[in-house]
Amino acid sequence: MLVTISLYAGTALIMFLFGWFIRKRVEKRKTDSMERLAESILAEAVEEAETIKNTARIEMEEESYQAKAKFERESNQTRQDFQRVEKRISIREQNLERKADYVAKREKGIQKHLQSLQERDEKLVESEERLDQLIKRQTEQLEQSAGMTTEEARKALLSNIDARIRAEAGQQARSIIEEARQNAEVEAREIITHAMQKHTLDHVTETTTSVISLPDNEMKGRIIGRDGRNIQAFEMSTGIDVIVDDTPNAVVLSGFNPMRREIAKLSMEKLIQDGRIHPGFIEQVVSKTQEEISDLIQDTGDQVLFDLGITGVRPELAMLLGQLKYRMTSGQNALHHCREVAELAGIMAQELDLDVTLARRCGLLHDIGKAVEGGPEGAHGKLGRSVVEKYGEPSEVLECIDAIHENPEETTPMAVVVRTADALSMSRPGALREPLEKYVRRLREMERLVNSFDGVSRAFVMKAGKEVRVMIDHEEVDDLRAVQLATEIARKIQARMEYSGQIKVTVIRQTRAVEIAR
Questions:
Q1: pLDDT tens for residues 87-112?
Q2: Distance in angstroms (rounded) separating the CA atoms of residues 307 and 513
Q3: Looking at residue 432, what is its pLDDT?
Q4: What is the per-residue pLDDT across 204-239, written as a single tens digit (0 to 9) for each?
Q5: Do the Cβ atoms of 515 and 243 come closer than 8 Å?
Q6: Which residue blocks in 199-276 are alpha helix, DSSP H?
Q7: Strands 332-333 and 241-243
Q8: Which of 248, 227, 249, 231 is closest to 240 using CA atoms?
Q9: May I ask the CATH class of domain 309-432?
Q10: How far apart are CA 493 and CA 374, in angstroms?
């Protein structure tokens, strides 16, 4: 029994010692594992800290480089600004030197003229002395002559003297008038030359196309759309041809109406910038641009008035001035032409001691009638006069408009100045392009003819006058009437218009049913 108990006790002791040993081994392994894990975490933390440190250093270097580049750009911009200011100052100094030379020449001419008058006075005094001597001699001869009474001698003497004085006075008057005319011509040439030299407004010849830059050639495919749907929707909404050719990274907008072409240009730029190009979005963008263009026109008119220093102009008149930007006269922009006339008239008025601001006002508004929609061709003079009279412009403005368009014999100083400035602007190189003007006039007349039909909502002349697209009201015109309308329009164009080749008439009737799901 004791042996058995001893065996059990020994076995238990051995098992206890074995368990204790195993536990120590496990604890040691766990401690070693924890130490290795701690060392691994510490190493990863050190590595991550080093990475963060390197990243921070790289970011600091990048920010330092960007700041340095920005500073260099701003320094270059400031340097360029200083150079432009120095250039403007140099140009002003040159203008002042030319003006000083001009004043010196005028003073020299005046002195020469005064000297000439003084010499003429001396000659007149000598002539009077000779006449006195001649009268004295003839009186003595008459007194000695026989058969003549004193009264007859006096009459003969007076008749002789009167004839000689009239002859000399007439000759001298002709000489003075001729000299005055020559001096006036010289003065006028100098004033006009000075005005042309001082005037520096730039001009760009107007065309019937606008070029839109693309970020890449892939954009052309998006503009065209599947089966040409996008380009068709754009042309239908704007009335402007879209020309997609081999020109890299560019498309061309073609149309004779500058207003529609500007709307198409702004809409196309918005579509390219947005990236969403599909028929529905195209119509939204074009509609929004048409609403925004009126604000742009008003800003343009206000800016021109501000640049010329003209105040007190009604907003409605400023709006018409802005619309002149989208009118052409013989190939030149109507607003640029009016501004050029205003500048030239102001310079010449300054030389002649006239009201400079009034001269600019008259020059700027002399063609305002061209901005009035729907007026008959060539009647912008009467339209302009009625417009400026309606909005309370000074009487001098009305006189200048009459002098240029209705009454060329008007000879008030201001009218002559503005008429001369208008002639200078119209006669500068590149100002007149009659073939383009006739082409645009023919296309406008074609649009006006098509719009005269009942049921026509809009009409666009496209493809350089070879196609007319007519949008009709689906509520007023049914499908059968649309076919008849196309035939009637084609016949009327054939009867009224002169053209070469053929003109395609396309009548489009669209019906849209819209309902909202709630």
A1: 888 888 888 888 878 878 888 878 88
A2: 50
A3: 47
A4: 445 667 888 888 888 888 888 888 888 888 888 888
A5: no
A6: 218-224, 229-238, 258-274
A7: unpaired
A8: 231
A9: mainly alpha
A10: 20
- Please provide the size of the chain in residues: 518
DSSP type of residue 402 = I
Angstrom distance (rounded) from CA 72 to CA 82: 15
The beta strands (E) that lie in 258-385 are given as: 328-329, 332-333
Burial of 240: CB neighbours in 10 Å, binned 0-12, 13-18, 19+: buried
Average pLDDT of the chain to the nearest whole number: 77
- The three-class DSSP label of residue 149 is coil
Q: What is the average per-residue pLDDT within 55-65?
A: 83
Tokens of 78: 């400031």
Which residues sit opposite 241 in a β-bridge? Answer: 254
Distance CA 458, CA 354 (A): 48
Provide the β-strand partners of residue 459.
470
> Two tokens at 98?
């030319």
Residue type, 486: A
- Specify the CATH number of the domain 442-509: 3.30.70.1350
- Comparing CA positions, the residue from 377, 505, 370, 438 lying closest to residue 208 is 438
Question: Angle at CA 232, nearest 5°, toward 228 and 238?
Answer: 150
CA 504 – CA 490 distance, rounded (Å): 8
| pLDDT tens sequence across 258-312 | 888 888 888 888 888 888 888 888 888 888 988 888 888 889 889 888 888 888 8
Given a contact cutoff of 8 angstroms between Cβ atoms, the answer to whether 101 and 193 are in contact is no
Pairing relation of β-strands 328-329 and 332-333? antiparallel
CB atoms within 10 A of CB 398: 17
pLDDT given for residue 204 in this prediction: 45
First-to-last C-alpha distance (Å) of the chain: 98
Domain boundaries, the chain: 1-142, 209-295, 309-432, 442-509
Q: What is the pTM of this model?
A: 0.50
Give yes or no for a contact between 321 and 388, defined as CB atoms under 8 angstroms apart.
no
Residue 427 class from Cβ within 10 Å (0-12 exposed, 13-18 middle, 19+ buried)? Answer: exposed
Distance CA 487, CA 506 (A): 10
User: What CATH number was assigned to the domain covering residues 209-295?
Assistant: 3.30.1370.10
Contact 488, 453 (CB under 8 A): yes
- Cα–Cα distance for residue pair 457/349, rounded to 1 Å: 48
Question: Quick one: pLDDT at residue 438?
Answer: 66
The conformation of residue 407, written as its DSSP 8-state character, comes to -
The Cα angle at residue 370 between residues 266 and 406, in degrees rounded to 5:
170
How many whole angstroms separate alpha carbon 393 and alpha carbon 386? 10
